[in-house]
């Protein structure tokens, strides 16, 4: 990517963050028990408005009011899956973008089928780690997964991400040392972040929620909004790491850094992009 284009992507990332702060999008989150706190705090510190409402009984009233829906299958059970499907159907019906985090998609047949069923309800974006995206693209479980963590590098999953984007119609993002974002045609790499993010549970869940907030304010540019969210979260991670002493303090400084990010003060920490 030329310097000029890199600069345009970086400006876009700041513009997206600024719009989230000014428009304060309402994000319905149906997410796992582990991630609820970090996810809500990540959205709040970025300027969005999280609501962890998951009842299928109230979604018909609530989902039409939101700016985007976030579904995460991390602690999936038989009784939560219908709620997820009802909310996803409502989001599609009311033209609200919705974003899927397919946590541990390859861990079991139950989880894989649930994720594939949800993908048939047309998410705007799917964000997973490399093993999750490979499991979904191959529609296979059990062979090379390690629960919620990835046993692959993000570079291993670029072709799987393109294939999943083409088959689903969603923008697909694979996170890792480099985050790759694709619509099946273009592939963009976002290179911010620090390895310590993997030592805090639910940072993947939290960044997927952030993607939902960014797509909420720019739904017709889902690829750009997704890349912006991943880069902004990575910049906050880099800044947080400068103050952190380990995973627990990193969690706190990550949220503080996201809250305090501004284009001028953070200019030395440019969002870094490249075309693949
Ligand atoms: N090695 C790494 N270097 C820098 N950032 C990373 C690294 N691994 C993961 N991240 C970042 O951590 C966050 C969570 O990603 P990841 O650990 O891949 O997801 P998950 O928690 O779902 O497995 C993302 O923002 C990603 O960019
Ligand atoms: C540990 C764990 N178990 C079920 S969901 C979950 C959190 C996973 O979070 P992330 O995918 O962001 O690492
Ligand atoms: Mg995850």
TrEMBL record:
Pfam family of the protein (one): HK
GO biological process terms on file: thiamine salvage
Enzyme Commission identifier(s): 2.7.1.50
UniProt keyword Mitochondrion, yes or no: no
Lineage top rank: taxon: Eukaryota
Alphabetized UniProt keyword annotations: ATP-binding, Kinase, Magnesium, Metal-binding, Nucleotide-binding, Thiamine biosynthesis, Transferase
Obligatory cofactor(s): Mg(2+)
Reaction(s) this enzyme catalyzes, per UniProt: 5-(2-hydroxyethyl)-4-methylthiazole + ATP = 4-methyl-5-(2-phosphooxyethyl)-thiazole + ADP + H(+)
Role of this protein: Thiazole kinase involved in thiamine salvage pathway.
Similarity-based family: Belongs to the Thz kinase family.
Protein name as catalogued: Hydroxyethylthiazole kinase
């Amino acid at each position: 990517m030329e310097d000029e284009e890199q600069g345009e992507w970086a400006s876009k990332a700041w513009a997206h963050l600024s719009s989230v702060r000014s428009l304060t999008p309402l994000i319905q989150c149906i997410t796992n028990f582990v991630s609820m706190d970090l996810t809500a705090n990540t959205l709040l510190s970025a300027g969005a408005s999280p609501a962890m409402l998951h009842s299928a009984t109230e979604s018909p009233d609530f989902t039409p009011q939101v700016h985007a829906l976030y579904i995460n299958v991390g602690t999936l059970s038989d009784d939560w899956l219908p709620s997820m499907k009802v909310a996803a159907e409502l989001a599609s019906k009311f033209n609200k973008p919705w974003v899927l985090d397919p946590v541990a998609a390859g861990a079991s047949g139950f989880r894989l089928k649930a994720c594939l069923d949800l993908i048939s309800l047309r998410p705007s974006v799917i964000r997973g780690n490399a093993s999750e995206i490979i499991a979904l693209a191959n529609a296979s479980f059990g062979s090379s997964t390690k629960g919620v963590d990835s046993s692959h590098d993000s570079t291993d999953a670029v072709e799987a991400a393109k294939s999943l984007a083409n088959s689903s119609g969603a923008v697909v993002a694979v996170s890792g040392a480099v985050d790759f974002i694709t619509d099946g045609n273009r592939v963009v790499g976002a290179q911010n972040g620090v390895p310590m993010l993997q030592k805090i549970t639910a940072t993947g869940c939290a960044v997927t929620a952030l993607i939902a907030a960014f797509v909420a304010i720019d739904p017709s540019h889902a690829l750009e909004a997704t890349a912006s969210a991943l880069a902004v979260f990575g910049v906050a991670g880099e800044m947080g790491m400068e103050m952190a002493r380990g995973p627990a303090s990193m969690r706190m400084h990550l949220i503080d850094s996201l809250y305090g990010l501004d284009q001028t003060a953070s200019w030395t920490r440019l969002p870094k992009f490249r075309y693949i």
